[in-house]
Give the backbone structure.
Amino acid sequence: MKDRSFLTQLDRLGPVLVTLAVLIVALAYMGDAYAASKRIHNLIMLVPMTAIVVVLAAIIFIKELGFRRIASRDTGEPAKPPASSGDKAGASASAIAAMMMGLLAYAIASPWIGFDVASILFLAFCLFIQGERRLVVLAGFSIPFGLAITWLLINGARSPVPTMIIPGL
Amino acid sequence: MNSWKSLKGAVLTLGLALGGQAAYAQDDYPNKPIEITAPYDAGGATDRMVRHLAPFLAEALGTPVNVVNRPGGGTLTGTVYFHNQPADGYTVMFIPPTPYFVNHIEVMNAPFKLDDFIFVNAQEVAQSLMVVPKESQVQSFDEIIEGLKEPGKLSAAVITGSSEHISLLLMMEKLDIPAENLRLVTYDGGGPTRTAIIGGQVDFGMVPGQGSEVIFDQVNKIMVVADETNPDWPDATPINEALKSYGVEMPILDSSVRSMVVLAKLKEEYPDRYQKFVDAYKSVVESEEYQASAKEGNYGRDWRGPEASTELVKRNYGLLVEYSRLLE
Amino acid sequence: MDLIDFGAVGLALGILGTSWVPWAVIIPGLFAGLAGGALPGISGTMIIALMLPFTLYMDFFTAVMFLTSVFTGAGFGGAIPAILINTPGTTASVSTAFDGFPMSRQGRHNEALGIGLAASTIGTFISYLVLFLLINYASWAVLKLGPFEMAMVAIWGITMIATLRGGNFERGILAGIFGLMIGTIGIGPTGQMRGTFGFAELLDGIPVVPAMIGLLATAELFNLARSRYIVEKQEDRVISFSRILQGFAGVREYWKTLLRGSMIGVFVGAIPGVGASVANLISYADARRISDDPESFGKGNPNGVVASESANSSSEGGAMATLLALGLPGGGGTAVLLAAFAMHNITGGPRFIADNKDIVYAILFGNMVQCLLLVIVGLLFIRIAVIIVKVPILYLVPSVIVLAMAGSYALIGNIMGPLTLAVFSIVGWLFARYEFAPPAAVVGLLLGAFVERQFVYSHQISGGDLSFIFGRPIALVMLALLIASIAYPAMKNYLRARRSLRVG
């Protein structure tokens, strides 16, 4: 239960956190560009854009945090949760989060374990997360599909993907 | 005795000669397709030139010759790729090394040096051409120089970091005209530069003459950076002639020097393959068929050979390095 | 200059009638384009480039017919996965998914595909018709667009798109600006590397196609995981050729949107550097803006599909106009065409048109025929592709993602492709969940470098003097439009908020 409400709290702060992330990325990029060169052509677009980002971020922070405080003070009710959440917000969000982390891992791991193996693992993982538990199905679907796609990449598209099982270019 | 020795000597020599011949003939290069690395996008001037050349080369070498575009980083990606290939004669590159190599080697710490390459043939030495759109307020070289003396009066278009860019700034420096007087727009490539010129967005421009034929109908060619008039552009005055009345002289900085390039290691490790490639390529360029076809398409078709071409590239490279301070 | 040169028309018909070979290559070309466009991760430009070597042994006219068929096919191909699985196959079909996919969810996938195909073919046909009539005047207007105008167009496009699907205004603009900024990562205007943090693969910026798929598609795909099938109700989950045809014929209802979309596409496509990717979004935003029922967009309004597909297809004609008239490529696909021209010693440009009117007209007519053939080939292709709705999402979603990852690798050539896809999937999911308008981020990413270049050129051409803009009436008008399109919704929001506060 504690988990559920933590995730829900996080979810409510979503817009703020995303804005914060965007702000940080923008400032970091701006900093890197400024360090590279202070010439006007290097900064002519980045400076106004960063300025706009800062202003918009401020507006969003005020709107989200300001109103929420006012709202909860007035009515004691929590503010409106984000648009696409339902009662399943907690559960499905974590399954989706898991799949996305899986996707990231898939991309990062490919150079080490090969695109073919990584694809197979990713496919099996997604099936597993969605409830499929039968090993026959997990293996029977993931292995042929993962191998087939990799084979096509190498022999059809002539792409030098790193592989473990399929012979590479 | 003596005759015995000389007979043995003769047999030995003959044997070596025959053996050597056999070894040469045994290397049946090329026995698989050859790739020409093209470190730029499809469709540009250099790309069109090499795609036109490839089938002729294929016929002369007796093997398919494939042009493969590997764009990125302003020719850096493709050049690095080429540099990493085995020096076995099955990968060559076609590229204008200047000005790109200057930026890659001097500024971006590229993993290659000029000496890693042999410039087999500078097939086209483009010259910087100064042009004015037909409706421009200035129509002659002298009018341009006059106009430049007034701050902010004139605008011009060049390709960023190109020979034209440097020649223009150098010329203004020598004439004691402040660079800020000119509203100079530096475009990413030949295409946008030409578009800006014929659209009348700027008063004049400088472009690589060879490769810009597509706009010749809508511009007047008024000056060329060369020692003498180019017969194809009779109205374009050679630069030092145009500058005579101003008492200054300019070094001749060539524009794109489109070259066939092989790895220097190829000549060291497979001298026969190197020679075979060079000979085949030379025979193509000098053939009547190619000369006629290239002329029709307005492609460069000179044979300068490895020594002259490498020297040409190095000379231009040196000049660019010397004057790149102007771009700061 | 005559509007139409009838002598040349006669000669053109002669060329077309001489040999059956050029006609024979159209159908394989269409098919290759459709297949390439339909595979997410593989772009239309890539397919044309892959087909280029095949044209080596064809004569010029045949080669052009083949490559433009690939171009035409790819123009519609991207719509198929956009409609069926919410994954645009190419950047040209981004907004097709906005209403196309909801239509699929409602069981109207057959109609959506039919309408999309009809809009595509008619859009292309219209653009070539316009080209035929105006070839003599075609691209001159484009030349008059200077950097100020271009910058205004780009920014205006982005602000329009930020409010594309309704939703939160500030967050939408933030996403758009964010996209613009990271779209400039790589080598900057002064030759410096920015934002690459040591990764050589980022020298040319963030790979756009994987980022687009991540931002728009994979996030949505994951959300799909809550359902069992794309189409909820079993009885709707049919593949019905008659319903596809109905959709196709039904495009008549939406003829206004079709016409507007085609016109927008022709003009946007003619601008060098911009193309189908932007055309479809601008057309969609425009259709929504003038609609009586803007709220229905994004929920399965066929006008959305029509607007998007007609624009991305007609941009082909616009780009061809620029190519033939100026010898300058309008975008990736036409650049490859230019290379093909070169292989046959042709350069395009006014002299080419003047000397070869008959060939130009023959190309135009040939392309019109392609449109007609696209109907047949397209319908067959759809008939096969639509089987996807029968596949349970359990298998479909991971498979599509793996396919997209593979496509990203093939396109980019290194692990940056799949990695970008993965990272931007996360970003896209977060943006979508909290109303940060992922499409705005996509357009920003597409146009970031372009907009920055226009800023630089504007500064250079004005000599740093901003009053320069007062001498450029077109730019001033665009600036006014830009301010209006920002001020108007902002004002609406503000007034609405005040009103509700007062009432409450």
User: Anything to note?
Assistant: The longest strand of chain C covers residues 186-187. The longest helix of chain C spans residues 473-503. The interface with chain B takes residues 49, 52-53, 56, 142-147, 187, 191, 200, 203-204, 272-273, 326-329, 334-339, 341-343, 345, 347-351, 453, 457, 460-463, 465 of chain C (CB under 8 Å). Chain C has a mean pLDDT of 80.
